Amino acid sequence: MKTELQSAVESLGIEKFRRHIFLCTDPTEPKCCPREKSLASWEFLKRRLAELKLAGPEALVYRTKANCLRVCARGPIAVVYPEGAWYHSCGPEVLERIIQEHLIAGKILEEFVFAKNPLD
Predict the structure, then answer these.
(1) Cβ-based burial of 71 (10 A; exposed 0-12, middle 13-18, buried ≥19)
(2) Beta strand pairing status for 19-24 and 78-81?
(3) What is the DSSP letter of 74?
(4) Sheet of 113-116: strands edge to edge?
(5) Residues 6+ apart with CB under 8 A from 72
(6) d(Cα 102, Cα 106) in Å, to the nearest integer?
(7) Whole-structure pTM value
(8) What is the tens place of the pLDDT at every residue in 80-119?
């Protein structure tokens, strides 16, 4: 018998994804950018990952909405694992480049990276 956790793992594709992007959005106390800007970035990320079939149970990218990544400057902030690339200024234009260049092509977008902490 399948447990509810096993069902969640299968329906979300948790054991299949290769990259995980966290995006700081809708913070309780917005400091790095206006709440509206962060929400627009989140909606863009969700839509584009779905359009490109990068999200969902058969996809290789997992996305997580983070209330705050505690880097309260030049937001929205995103981090992509396993490379541990931390990105600033993640509006729709920068997110599109992260999607195309990092999530799809595997190349870190150096001009927007301000820190790296890869998972080994």
Answers:
(1) middle
(2) antiparallel
(3) S
(4) 61-66, 19-24, 78-81, 85-87, 113-116
(5) 31, 32
(6) 4
(7) 0.91
(8) 999 999 999 999 999 999 999 999 999 999 999 999 999 9
